[in-house]
Amino acid sequence: MGLINYSSIEDGTTIDAADVNTPLTTIYDDYNGNIDSNNLADNAVTTAKITDANVTTAKIADANVTMPKISNPYKFHAWNATAQNSTPIAAPLLCDTELFDTNSNFDITTNKGRYTAPVAGFYNFGGRFKIPIGDNGFARIIIYVNGSAKSVGNIVRSGGAGTTIAVVVNTFIQLSAGDYVELYVQSSDTQAIDVNSSVENYFYGFLVSV
User: Fold this and answer.
1) Which helix (H) or strand (E) holds 171?
2) Which domains does the chain have, with CATH numbers?
3) What are the pLDDT digits (tens) for 116-165?
4) CA atoms within 13 A on the CB side of 199
5) Which residues, including other chains, have CB under 8 Å from residue 44's CB and lie 6 or more apart?
6) Which of 83, 79, 30, 76 has the alpha carbon at shortest distance from 204?
7) Fewer CB atoms < 10 Å away: N or C end of the chain?
8) 207 SS3 class
């Protein structure tokens, strides 16, 4: 649709119905479903004029959403800087120090070591802890969701008295918004976890997709 043109009527000119109806019909026909960019001022369509959820996937060309337009603030990495023992009864690794927590969903105060999912989706979690272990001892690490075991890492056994072992876990799980995730540690005998090092004992996670 092009721009609508009209001719001014001079004073004293006699007009009939066609003089009025013809331009009105043109306006009527053009504006009923035929408005295009020629008839819109620059910046005329604002966010407020677009109904929520009305821009569909079909209207976005492939490859037109680039990395600078993609944001995923849901990620964290934390570790334990305070003395803690691993015992035969599995208990959360009390991570109280963050390397990062970009959306502030990891708790280092009230429920130390707990991550609460801000949105429903598929998440990746992993962790590690290191302890000395007695002869014939073992240790393991477990991902808990809402207080129940969800994924068990490898069980590492002692190579002899005075052995130091490191245990790891990594898992991919689906969460609902509000689900909370913790990293539990367990060993055959009570031993002090090797703390004060972000590379020896840690817990991390991030949203992969919704």
Assistant:
1) strand 163-175
2) 69-209 (2.60.120.40)
3) 999 999 999 999 999 998 888 999 999 999 999 999 998 899 877 778 99
4) 0
5) none
6) 76
7) C
8) strand
DSSP element (H, E) containing 133: strand 121-133
Chain length of the chain = 210
Q: Which DSSP state fits 77? A: E
Locate 106 and state its tokens.
């990891």
Neighbouring residues of 109: CB distance < 8 A, sequence distance ≥ 6: 96
In the chain, alpha helices (H) = 17-31
pTM of the predicted protein model: 0.73
Residue of 87, 113, 117 lying closest to 203 (CA atoms): 113
Q: Which residues, in sequence order, are bridge partners of residue 138?
A: 157
